[in-house]
Amino acid sequence: MKIAILGAGLMGSALGRVWASHGHEILYSYARDMGRLRTLAEATGHGARAVTPREAVSQSDVVLVAVPWRALDELLAQAGPMAGKIVISCMLPMTPDDEELAIGLDTSGAEELARRTEGRVVGAFNTVWSDVIRRHVDAPPAAGEEPTMFYLGDDREAKATVATLIRVAGFAPLDVGDLRQARLLEPFGLLMGRLGAMIDPLVAYRLVQP
Ligand SMILES: NC(=O)c1ccc[n+]([C@@H]2O[C@H](COP(=O)([O-])OP(=O)(O)OC[C@H]3O[C@@H](n4cnc5c(N)ncnc54)[C@H](OP(=O)(O)O)[C@@H]3O)[C@@H](O)[C@H]2O)c1
Questions:
Q1: Which of 191, 205, 90 minimizes the C-alpha distance to 147?
Q2: What is the mean pLDDT of residues 33-50?
Q3: Which of 166, 175, 197, 203 has the largest count of CB atoms under 10 Å?
Q4: Do β-strands 120-123 and 148-153 pair in parallel, antiparallel, or remain unpaired?
Q5: CA–CA distance, 70 with 98 (Å, rounded to integer)
């Protein structure tokens, strides 16, 4: 798959690396420093490239949006049309000081992204620290020991595609429902972020069924 990564910081670079290591073609984009993006593409290997957001979106099958919530307006202006694309949101819609959720209860980051892009948005990866994903590049979990990754969305085909990308990133995907469930998942993501800070950035979760 060709995957556009919009925002190649902690999350975008970790996911780019793990997906590239499984043969996916990565297009990194959206940085104030293009030199840093090019260095990351070289370090990622497997044909990864640094391009503009518009090039990344237009050439890709899947788009990962991995920017701070406060940068979304600027990103969407640069990225161009995404209608009909499979769009993964790993964002938490945080206030500019990064302390609290800026929206919730009656909408969510994933729903707002779907409304604004008309993309087939799937929410995923926002319930673990990037450290967990980065660790899976060098030390993938043993079969049956993968942490769970909750994901959600309204489009069945988009969710099936994202489930495969969750698996290759070393998680057991668990579909938690439609896009509205992001109103519950995003606060859980913030809680997991706080637990990561309190306990260990490598904490993750696994759903067990007796
Ligand atoms: N980090 C985590 O563990 C984690 C966990 C769960 C969810 N999330 C969510 O994932 C999203 C990405 O988080 P992250 O930690 O990967 O962010 P990050 O490390 O700050 O990365 C943001 C990327 O966007 C680029 N960018 C370009 N223009 C920007 C601008 N005007 N303002 C800010 N960034 C700009 C930055 O590149 P330059 O600096 O080169 O410009 C950087 O590569 C956020 O919505 C966050 O809430 C993160």
A1: 205
A2: 96
A3: 166
A4: antiparallel
A5: 9
95-128 pLDDT tens trace: 999 999 999 999 999 999 999 999 999 999 999 9
Q: What tokens were used for 79?
A: 């990225």
Residue 208 Cα to ligand 1 midpoint, Å, equals 32
Question: For residues 125 and 11, is the Cβ–Cβ distance under 8 A?
Answer: yes
- Nearest atom in ligand 1 to the alpha carbon of residue 36 is 40
Tokens encoding 35? 């030199």
Name the token pair of 92.
Answer: 């938490």
Atom of ligand 1 nearest to the CA of 33: 40
Q: How far is the CA of 143 from the centre of ligand 1 (A)?
A: 30
Ligand 1 neighbours, Cβ below 6 Å, are 7-12, 30-33, 36, 66-69, 71, 74, 90-92, 94, 126, 129-130, 189, 193
Residue 81 CA to chain centroid, in angstroms?
19
